Inverse folding.
């Protein structure tokens, strides 16, 4: 299907024209595309260039395309490896930011909430697609209605609730609201299971396997594709989450990296911010996403088509 | 990198739609061997999600509406005050200023994102099917708003930012991108566009791949040129997808918070970037006026619901186009 439609969206681009080396339209199209790619990627490059620079030297030479006074200092500063003297000498603020600690919190928060979200959605989706029970369609449509409700109204009351439960500044408080219930994941997995042939599962049931054994031994392995996709998208979303952790955590012991970075940014001296250190911190924050992208790039790109439904 | 052959992202949505249609039938004809004991197991399996739904979605929605009719400062129980918060809101100059700022942000960010994304999707479709290129342009979608805001704060810095250095090198005057009243919102909107344009392009690109070839053949036979086909065929056929990305972007932009809070301080110069979500946050968590903050949340909620319903009507009205 791809190959069939590929030439036909802008059909004037016939095969004959395509073979011609450079029609003006194609040149303009490529120039535009390259411009978009440069605008997209330049900030990442600038992040790298600045993170390997000496903060003092960078002020003297702000336009150099290469790191100014190449140093690992900014990384040492944000990872807590530099002494105060070293950090001040390279234009750091001298205050230590426990970035590694925040990083650990982010890993816990993002992986636990993603794992909960996907697992609970998975078993719910099984109930909605494979089991026959009264009220099934009704409960499902109630769940779906939650897709329509923007988060804004529930944020403040959820904060109050988490506070009343005594879960402020705990991972449980951060994870529970998103981890238990995700309308989109349930909807997506249910659709997938409904489209899946049930023959093997029925054979296993006839052979006397229990429902739970079929669910964990057959259905879940068969759904591994969408499970991985939803896990990646969930992990990205939770890793980058800022507002909810901002509401329910005030203690650095559980705060994720997004909050740590924001604190670092806001607390850096207005007159002469430690931009090199900040860029090193953003790289630490973005790196897990970039690694995820290296490993699952194609899957991420292809999943965005349907993630648009979110 | 794991890119090899370009796979049709759009097939997912199309297939999902087809499956959805088949659902009803299949559910009825389900001839699994035994459904005895299903109900008990089903309730156990949906219990975690069900509890999450009731406790963290239904209950807070009701409570949020209730709070907005109360005077509530978190320390003592909420006190019912009727419409007092709503009256306060209607008369609150800061609230209306904040609505204006938010709408200004949404209009710039969303219109730019859509124009650039449609163009990028069309160009991608025309010149390359490379998954690697599509992968590169969604990179900003993978990083957090906090990271994006931090990097752009550095690049747009008034003294040493590379953007201003380039402007000066070209003979212009430096611009106070994030620290002047005039430029704060356009600059923040630009960061939002940078972060979302790749993602939006990929969704639109996916939509373009689902347009059947025969339609263009018919167009060509009728003597339409490339431009006419783009405006008369591609865009109308994409309307359901465009409505979807429009609403996603509008809803996202209306609730913008992290970019604004990191790139500008405390609502920006003279409240120039005091977007609604920021004002709600300041009322709730700066002044602990939860009643009033809830009232504004409810207002924003109603705005978003109206937009969602408008979009759903747009979608439904166009479903036949793509069949």
């Amino acid at each position: 299907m791809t190959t069939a439609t590929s030439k036909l969206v802008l059909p004037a681009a016939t095969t004959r024209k395509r073979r011609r080396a450079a029609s003006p339209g194609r040149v303009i199209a490529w120039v535009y595309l390259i411009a978009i790619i440069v605008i997209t990627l330049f900030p990442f490059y600038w992040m790298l260039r600045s993170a390997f620079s000496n903060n003092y030297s960078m002020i003297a030479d702000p336009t150099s395309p290469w790191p100014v006074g190449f140093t690992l200092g900014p990384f040492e500063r944000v990872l807590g490896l530099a002494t105060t003297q070293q950090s001040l000498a390279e234009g750091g603020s001298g205050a230590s930011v426990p970035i590694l600690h925040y990083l650990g919190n982010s890993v816990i928060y993002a992986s636990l909430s993603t794992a909960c979200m996907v697992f609970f959605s998975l078993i719910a989706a099984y109930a909605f697609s494979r089991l026959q029970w009264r009220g099934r369609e009704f409960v499902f449509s109630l769940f779906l209605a939650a897709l329509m409700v923007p988060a804004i109204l529930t944020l403040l009351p959820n904060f109050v609730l988490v506070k009343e439960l005594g879960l402020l500044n705990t991972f449980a408080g951060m994870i529970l609201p998103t981890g238990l219930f995700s309308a989109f994941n349930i909807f997506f997995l249910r659709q997938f299971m409904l489209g899946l042939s049930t023959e093997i599962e029925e054979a296993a049931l006839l052979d006397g396997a229990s429902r739970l054994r079929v669910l964990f031994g057959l259905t879940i392995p068969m759904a591994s594709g969408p499970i991985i996709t939803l896990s990646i998208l969930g992990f990205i979303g939770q890793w980058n989450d800022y507002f909810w952790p901002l509401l329910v955590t005030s203690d650095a012991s559980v705060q994720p990296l997004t909050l740590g970075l924001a604190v670092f940014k806001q607390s850096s001296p207005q007159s002469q911010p430690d931009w090199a250190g900040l860029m090193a911190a953003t790289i630490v924050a973005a790196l897990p996403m970039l690694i995820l992208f290296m490993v699952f790039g194609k899957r991420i790109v292809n999943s965005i088509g349907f993630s648009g439904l979110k | 990198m794991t890119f090899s052959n370009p796979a049709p992202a759009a097939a997912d949505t199309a297939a999902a739609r087809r499956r959805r249609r088949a659902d009803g039938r299949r559910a009825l004809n389900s001839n699994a061997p035994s459904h005895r004991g299903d109900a008990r197991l089903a309730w156990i399996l949906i219990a975690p999600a069900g509890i999450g739904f009731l406790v963290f979605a239904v209950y807070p929605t009701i409570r949020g509406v209730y709070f907005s009719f109360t005077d509530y400062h978190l320390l003592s129980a909420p006190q019912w005050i009727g419409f007092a918060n709503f009256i306060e809101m209607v008369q609150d100059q800061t609230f209306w200023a904040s609505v204006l700022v938010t709408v200004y942000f949404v209009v710039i960010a969303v219109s730019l994102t859509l124009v650039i994304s449609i163009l990028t999707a069309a160009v991608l479709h025309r010149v390359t099917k490379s998954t690697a290129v599509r992968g590169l342009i969604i990179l900003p979608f993978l990083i957090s708003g906090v990271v994006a805001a931090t990097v752009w704060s550095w690049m747009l810095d008034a003294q040493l930012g590379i953007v201003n250095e380039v402007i000066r090198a070209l003979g212009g005057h430096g611009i106070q991108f994030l620290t002047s009243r005039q430029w704060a919102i356009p600059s923040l909107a630009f960061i939002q566009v940078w972060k979302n344009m790749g993602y939006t392009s990929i969704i639109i690109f996916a939509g373009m791949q689902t347009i059947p070839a025969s339609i263009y053949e018919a167009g060509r036979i009728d003597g339409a040129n490339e431009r006419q086909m783009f405006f008369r065929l591609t865009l109308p056929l994409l309307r359901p997808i465009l409505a979807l990305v429009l609403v996603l972007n509008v809803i996202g932009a209306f609730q913008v918070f992290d970019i604004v809070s990191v790139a500008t301080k405390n609502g920006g110069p003279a409240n120039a970037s005091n977007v609604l979500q920021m004002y709600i946050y300041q009322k709730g968590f700066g002044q602990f006026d939860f009643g009033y903050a809830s009232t504004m949340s409810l207002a924003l909620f109603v705005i978003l619901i109206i937009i969602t319903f408008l979009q759903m009507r747009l979608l439904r009205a166009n479903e036949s186009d793509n069949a």
Q: What stands out?
A: Chain B has a mean pLDDT of 83. Chain B touches chain A through 141 residues (CB under 8 Å). The beta strands of chain B are 70-71, 79-80. The CA atoms of residues 122 and 205 of chain B lie 7 Å apart.
